[in-house]
Amino acid sequence: APYLNNLAQAAGKLWFGTAMDTTTAEPDDVDYMTVFNDTNIFGQVTPGNTMKWEFTEPTQNVFTFSEGEETIALAEATGKKVRCHNLVWSSELPSWVTDGSWTNETLLAAMETHIKTEIEYYGSGCWSWDVVNEALDSDGGLTSNVFSEIIGSAYVPLAFQYAYEAVQSLGEDIKLFYNDYSIEWAGTKNAAAIALVKEIQGWDGAHIDGIGFESHYSVSWGASQAQQEEAMASFTALGLQVHITELDVPCTAVPCTTDALTIQAQIYYDTISACMNTEDCTGMTVWDFDDKYSWIQPADYDGEGDPDLYYSDLTRHPAYTAVAEAIQGL
Ligand code: G3I
């Protein structure tokens, strides 16, 4: 079978990568780990959960980095880069953050400490950080969370300012990303994300290197290749690099029908092709590769499932070949 990371790097991209989660059964699953460890297939890893706030600072000023370190150790053992994920998000917040009685000043101080401590601890173990995740809701408004409620929209550029200060004090070239969904095609949310990036770029002391296109699609809908290329161009025009960060495409029912597998393969193909056609789209990552460990399980998502490149028995979906062809421009 063709090797996705080898092909991607031969074509000038940084990597073909995957998410994985050390808190699940994955690290003990020998067959899963055999595929994961194969650097020919995956040259990058994103920790699916373990660097989020609730894991890393469960109590204020008490930091627990061991789970995240596991991912970095796995990456270092197999020559993978790590896209560290994430510093500030509405979800997976410990209760001391969500339920704290904050003022603008105290919450900013807590956010600054969290961002700087995490960046400084993991250091060059992180190739990049998703500094702010999903700050916008589906209609392009600011997602309501403790940060937007107490600090207002300034929390986003301020997070990038704190992150940049940490990176500069380390003296490392760690890239800083904004990561979101439904920005992969022109529309209200894409426009709001462009405005947000411009706000960060115009903010004294802040810095942003790239934008993450989550790319969570479904066999019932995916952005076309042309739509995705147009959306990528709207960010590369601002000087950013683009990463596909969380690609997956569930079937509406499992097992996937033959027709669904064909559509699934086409959506993977279109997404990867858009990145391949965009010089500054530099990396491509799937949100795990084994259906067994996907976040989209039929019981939780109204029957939807099997969104990944490998079935639970680790045989490959047709989408795997489609991705290999897209990388090669076939
Ligand atoms: O670790 C516990 C386990 O002990 C317990 O038995 C089990 C019971 O539900 O829960 C386990 O934790 C879950 C964890 O995933 C590991 O499976 C959490 O409850 C669950 O909330 C967590 O969900 C993650 C979700 O983000 C929320 O953080 C998903 O795995 C993860 O794939 C998903 O990833 C997000 C990205 O970070 C941002 N973009 C969207 C993407 C998909 O939602």
What is the architecture of the domain at 43-208 at the second tier of CATH?
Alpha-Beta Barrel
Q: What is the general shape? A: globular
Beta-strand content estimate? 5-15%
**Total count of helical runs of at least 4 residues:** 12
The biggest sheet, with number of strands, parallel, antiparallel or mixed sense and barrel status, is: 8 strands, parallel, barrel
Radius of gyration: 19 Å
Order of strands in the sheet with most strands: 1-2-3-4-5-6-7-8
CATH class identity of the domain at 43-208: Alpha Beta
Mean pLDDT: 98
Bound small-molecule species: ligand G3I
| Overall number of strands | 8
Order of helices and strands: HEHEHHEHHEHHEHEHEHEH
The CATH superfamily of the domain at 43-208 is known as Glycosidases
- Which blocks of ≥5 consecutive residues have pLDDT under 50? none
CATH structural fold name of the domain at 43-208 = TIM Barrel
* Structural class by secondary-structure content: alpha/beta
The helix content, as a percent range, equals: 40-55%
Query: Distance N terminus to C terminus?
Result: 15 Å
